[in-house]
Amino acid sequence: MMIFSLFCFAVSAAEKSTIPPAFVDLEQVMPTLEVELRYFSEDNFVGERIPGYNKPKAILSKKAAAALARVQDDLLEFGLGLKVYDAYRPQRAVDFFVRWAQDLKDTRMKQHYYPQVQKKDLFSHGYIAAKSGHSRGSTVDVTLVSLMGGKPSELDMGTTWDYFSIKSWPANLALTAQQRANRMLLQQVMLRQGFTFLEEEWWHFTLKDEPFSEQYFDFVIE
Ligand SMILES: C[C@@H](N)C(=O)N[C@H](C)C(=O)O
Ligand SMILES: [Zn+2]
């Protein structure tokens, strides 16, 4: 009986940690990539680790990962690189965001993440989606880093990642020339390799010819 239980445990652990064959851990294929998976931490708009993020791994479809690797190659020539904040997002994480949004009293991260938008408007204003491209596995949240000097340092994009505000719209004009140039550079290198952008968030890009355009995945990030 005990051996049988151990066998069942081993099988279920193995099942949980399996990434589907069409997906890949970005750090395995992009050695110079910076990754800070914020939904694995408490530093995000909710204020706690998000269900489905059991490891700080950035996973994408192999097709999107190949396109992102080409972006990285283009940037490396200029001493720049990419930093990823979020990639594949399990549907259970999205469902958790939906439940969180219904509790209007929980605004513990408002000051840092959405000071100018009411919590009740975050979905309707396009900052969070109930059906997210991230769950299709070919959407990624990225910024640019300078690799010149010691530690990679983020370029100034005018706002931080997941700052839900009109100021984060890529086309917002109330920025310095340098901030606008940084956003446009990020957008251009991503577009050149086949990604499209989101009007409300300078950091959010989806592969145009995504391989799973109708499928929303829910495997846990292990
Ligand atoms: C929540 C934010 N990081 C994001 O990804 N927003 C878009 C709209 C999404 O949820 O797909
Ligand atoms: Zn995103």
TrEMBL record:
Cofactor: binding comment: Binds 1 zinc ion per subunit.
Catalyzed reactions: D-alanyl-D-alanine + H2O = 2 D-alanine
Major enzyme class: hydrolase
Alphabetized UniProt keyword annotations: Cell wall biogenesis/degradation, Dipeptidase, Hydrolase, Metal-binding, Metalloprotease, Protease, Zinc
Xref: Pfam families: Peptidase_M15 (PF01427)
Site note Transition state stabilizer, residues: R89
Top-level taxon of origin: Bacteria
UniProt keyword annotation of Plastid present: no
Matches recorded under CDD domains: D-Ala-D-Ala_dipeptidase_VanX
EC id: 3.4.13.22
Cofactor requirements of the protein: Zn(2+)
UniProt-listed InterPro entries: A_A_dipeptidase, Zn_M74/Hedgehog-like
List of residues binding Zn(2+): H134, D141, H204
List of catalytic residues: E201
Function: Catalyzes hydrolysis of the D-alanyl-D-alanine dipeptide.
Record family assignment: Belongs to the peptidase M15D family.
Name of the protein in its database record: D-alanyl-D-alanine dipeptidase
Species, as recorded: Thalassomonas haliotis
Gene symbol of the encoding locus: ddpX
